Structure formats: structure tokens, C-alpha cells
């Protein structure tokens, strides 16, 4: 295969993902189907079915495409600052198009579809947890966090708290919430000081 | 008014809420509507509309009825044990009928209905957060937790982590998760020892 068809294939994939996201934003998840995406993109349904087994799989790929660049934590050597920055930077993505409403709709759909929930976790949430874990594990190796704590679950707590607030709370993911969350994390695992005036 | 009609009113309310929950369990949230509830209960639609403005409001009341008794934390004087017990006791309720599937469906529906999300938070999640806060605030007054920490947000973190695992993770709310969560909380706010071997 020469480079030409490969490039055309990549361009077509990118176009299909963009059309999917546009359509999802316009009509919502409930109104979305592969026929409508095919019609809008000017391709046959089978072109899509050859690549994606379901509407959900196609939509998750479309979300991934606009999202992945946002997932990497900075590493300035100050884990508290880097967590804060990342959480505050993620918050608008969750509440605004193109990601926010579509992602929320997929999460809703996943509540009655265990296979989609698994794919969603594998494709998105596990990635978010992993990148959080990677950042705090680096901080642990750098001596910013206590040496012998297992940080897998704390990474999930950090992500889970933000998702809870986004999906189920009426309060925003704002500076106050992010500061409180990072304070709690550092109080538990920071190698230095802790919250409050207890006899630590 | 004599006691007789008041008792009849309470019995009819209880019956309507039970019918609602039964029907929700059978047909799912998507298949549920006030006409179907009225038909099953043998009452007119207006009997229901007089009391509940929407299907969601009726269903939230039905969920509340089977649920409220489970929400109170024990107070044995050992906050770590009481949190563990409560979290492990809540987990099966979230995964099994009558509460689990119906509650999950309401949460899904709330993702595309901001008013329902607000009602859901006010009626359920705020209550869960509050009862968690009450228990840890008592522990703080008893000297089990550091004196000057604001425990509002930590109560949300405890609840949010469990909801995240229930709604978005593929892992169960098991002893390992609950222990890790309570360990993190106590490491941050316990008046005694902390996680790890840091220079605390």
C-alpha cells in the first residue's frame, strides 16, 4: 500500500468522527444513529459498520478524538499545583460542547447498557484514572508524597469526586471544590504537613 | 376530619408508591408513565396528578419510601467502623431491586433533565451527604477527628467515590474499596495516626 490511500483513509476517518460529533451535538444521543451519520457524511452505512460495531463505539471514538490532548497532567514538580490546574482545566470541557453534553448522554445511556459501561470505563475513565495515578506516583517517587502508600485507589477518589459533582451535584467544579479535594488528598498522602491541628 | 379518612389517605399513598415501584422494576423507567400507574392501581390519573406533578416526582417518592431507613449511620463511637459498616450495607441496595435498577434509571434520566437532577440531589444525594456529614461531625466533636477541619466537602468525597464506582466503574463496592476509602479519610482527618511512613 502506498501512503496515498492510507492518508485518504485517515482523512475519511477524521471526517466521519467529526460528522458524528456534530450530529450528536445537534440532535443528542437519543436522536443519533448510524444511518444519519452515513447520510450526513455522504458514505454508505457499510463503510461505517466495517469500522465501528455500534453507534456507541463510533461516538466514543469521536469523543476520544477531541479529548485526548487534554488528559495529560503537567509536571512542574509541584503535585498540588498540577492537580489543581488539571482539575480546573477539565471542568469546562465537561460542561461545554463539544464534549460535555455528548459525554453526559453516553454516560446516561451506559446506565442501562452494561457492555457500553464497560467500554466507557475502559476507553475513558480508566485512562483518566491512569493519568492521575501516573502524576501522583511521580510525586511519590519525587518525595512529595509518603513513600509506602498505595495510590491506585486515591487516584480513583480524585476522579470520582469530580464526576460525582458533575453528574449528580447541583454545585459546580469550582476553585473551592478543587482546593478542598486537593487539600484532602495532600492531608492524607503529603510527605509534609496535614489538615487541621491534630496530634499528628 | 376524623382519623378514618386520614388513615385511608395514607394507605392509598403507600399503595400508589408500591405500585409505582413494582411497575418501574417490571418495565424500567423508559416504559413508565402515570397512566400505567393509575391503571395498575385502579385509580384515575387525576388522583395521581393531584399529588405528584410528574412521573419522576412520583418515582422519587416511591424510592424514598423503601430507602429512608437505610440512611442512618450507626454510632458505636468508632467512626472508622461505622463508616465501613454503612458503606458496605449501602452497596447491595444500590445493585439490587427494588432500589438499584430504578435509581440508576432515574440518575440516567436526570442527565438530560436539569430540573430532575436538582430534585434528585435535593431529595436523595443531599440527604446522603448530610447523614454522612452528621456522623463525621459527631466523631469530630468526640475527638476522633482533627478539630478544625471543615468536613462538608469530605462528606461529599466519601459519597461521591461510592457513586462513581457504582455508576462508572467496572469494579464493585467491596471491602477492599471501602477500606481504602475509609483509610484515606482517616489519614486526612483522623486525630491519630496517618497513612504511610511520612514525617508526620
Automatic annotation (TrEMBL), chains A, B:
UniProt domain HTH tetR-type: residue ranges: 10-70
Coiled coil: none
Keyword annotations of the record: DNA-binding, Transcription, Transcription regulation
InterPro entries noted in UniProt: Homeodomain-like_sf (IPR009057), HTH-type_TetR-like_transc_reg (IPR050109), HTH_TetR (IPR001647), Tet_transcr_reg_TetR-rel_C_sf (IPR036271), TetR_C (IPR011075)
Keyword Repressor tagged: no
PROSITE patterns: HTH_TETR_2
Regions recorded as binding DNA: 33-52
One term of GO molecular function: transcription cis-regulatory region binding
SUPFAM superfamilies with a match to the protein in the record: Homeodomain-like (SSF46689), Tetracyclin repressor-like, C-terminal domain (SSF48498)
Protein name: TetR family transcriptional regulator
Species of provenance: Amycolatopsis thermoflava
Amino acid at each position: 500500500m502506498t501512503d496515498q490511500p492510507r492518508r485518504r483513509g485517515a482523512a475519511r476517518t477524521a471526517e466521519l468522527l467529526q460528522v458524528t460529533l456534530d450530529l450528536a451535538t445537534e440532535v443528542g444521543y437519543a436522536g443519533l444513529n448510524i444511518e444519519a451519520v452515513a447520510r450526513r457524511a455522504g458514505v454508505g452505512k457499510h463503510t461505517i459498520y466495517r469500522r465501528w460495531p455500534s453507534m456507541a463505539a463510533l461516538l466514543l471514538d469521536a469523543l476520544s478524538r477531541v479529548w485526548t490532548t487534554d488528559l495529560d497532567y503537567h509536571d512542574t514538580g509541584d503535585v498540588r499545583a498540577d492537580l489543581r490546574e488539571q482539575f480546573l482545566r477539565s471542568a469546562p470541557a465537561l460542561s461545554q460542547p463539544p464534549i460535555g453534553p455528548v459525554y453526559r448522554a453516553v454516560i446516561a445511556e451506559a446506565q442501562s447498557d452494561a457492555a457500553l459501561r464497560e467500554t466507557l470505563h475502559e476507553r475513558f475513565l480508566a485512562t483518566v484514572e491512569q493519568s492521575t495515578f501516573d502524576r501522583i506516583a511521580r510525586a511519590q517517587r519525587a518525595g512529595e508524597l509518603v513513600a509506602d502508600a498505595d495510590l491506585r485507589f486515591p487516584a480513583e477518589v480524585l476522579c470520582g469526586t469530580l464526576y460525582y459533582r458533575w453528574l449528580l451535584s447541583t454545585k459546580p467544579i469550582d476553585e473551592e471544590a478543587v482546593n478542598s479535594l486537593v487539600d484532602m488528598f495532600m492531608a492524607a498522602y503529603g510527605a509534609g504537613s496535614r489538615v487541621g491541628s491534630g496530634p499528628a
